[in-house]
Amino acid sequence: MFELPEIAVLSKQINSTLTGKIVRAGSLGNSPHKFVWYNRSDEEFAGLTAEKRVGESWARGRWLFTPLEPGYVLLLGECGGKMLYHAQGGEMPKKYHLCLHFQDDSFFTVTTQMWGAMELYEEGQERLREYVRDMRTTPAEPGFSYDYFDRLVDEVVQGEKRSVKGLLTQDQIVPGLGNAIAQDIMFRARLHPKRAVGDLNAEQRRTLYDAIRGTVEEVTERGGRCDETDLFGNPGGYARLMDKNAAGAPCPECGTAVEKMQYLGGACYFCPSCQAP
Ligand SMILES: [Zn+2]
């Protein structure tokens, strides 16, 4: 799944590659998939995207917004898989769920592995979509200050009991993070995934905040995670510290064997010594 850094990288690459191109033909793919959320029929999508010009894209959390001017915004959200640019003469993927062919014969395809939204809105309506409308401040935005995070944690601990992994990956409390980047954030903060957020002292809150900001920035600067690909099909340059390759291997900090456990709908990799419960 793309997480916030990968979407930020894709948005930047789309701006330097696709902006200004004119759509010749848009389609919603060749491979019906029940977990792709569309809001248009194929005919409608083709009709509304024809002759439109690609504007400046932006990213928020795991959502990518691409204006098709005049009047429309393409919304790609919560996707895993591939978003690819193909130069003139490039090969079409066997399966794809969205394609924009441009007048210069280059094209853009999106293929999802699990699920994802691929929706076309009248300009302005995209901001009202569920999950976008109520999205909290993301760690890539200037508003994600320590004061903001401190208040957010205060709010979270008022409700039901929540663990550090729950804070990072559930209910979009910190939008844009997913199970992959969360592993490295928890390792850098030296916090066990099951550690209760309510038990963190002021220093640990600060360390967790710094780990969120620092990890998001570093993964973005390196072009995303190395197990995801960018607009040109190249893997990102960030190798996770805590992933399936780390399980059983020595912790990079202390040498203790890294452990794996299933928790909150995904695998966690952690150092039982650095991240003692
Ligand atoms: Zn360790």
What features would you describe in this structure?
The protein has 277 residues and is an alpha+beta fold. Helix content is 26%, strand content 20%. It has helices at residues 4-17, 42-49, 146-158, 164-169, 179-188, 202-221, and strands at 23-27, 36-38, 53-54, 58-60, 63-69, 72-77, 82-86, 98-102, 107-111, 116-122, 259-262, 267-270. The strands form three sheets. Strands 2, 3, 4, 5, 6 and 10 form a six-stranded mixed β-sheet that branches. A four-stranded antiparallel β-sheet has the order 1-8-9-7. A two-stranded antiparallel sheet has the order 11-12. Helix 1 runs parallel beside helix 6 (202-221) and helix 5 (179-188) packs across helix 6 (202-221). The two termini are 28 Å apart. The relative contact order is 0.14. The mean pLDDT is 95. Residues 251, 253-254, 256, 271, 273-274 line the site of zinc ion.
Architecture blueprint of SSEs:
Blueprint: H1 4-17, E1 23-27, E2 36-38, H2 42-49, E3 53-54, E4 58-60, E5 63-69, E6 72-77, E7 82-86, E8 98-102, E9 107-111, E10 116-122, H3 146-158, H4 164-169, H5 179-188, H6 202-221, E11 259-262, E12 267-270
Parallel strand pairs: 2-10
Antiparallel strand pairs: 1-8, 3-5, 4-5, 5-6, 6-10, 7-9, 8-9, 11-12
Residues 251, 253-254, 256, 271, 273-274 line the site of zinc ion.
Fill in the keyword field for this structure.
277 residues; alpha+beta; six-stranded mixed β-sheet; four-stranded antiparallel β-sheet; 6 helices; 12 strands; 26% helix; globular; binds zinc ion
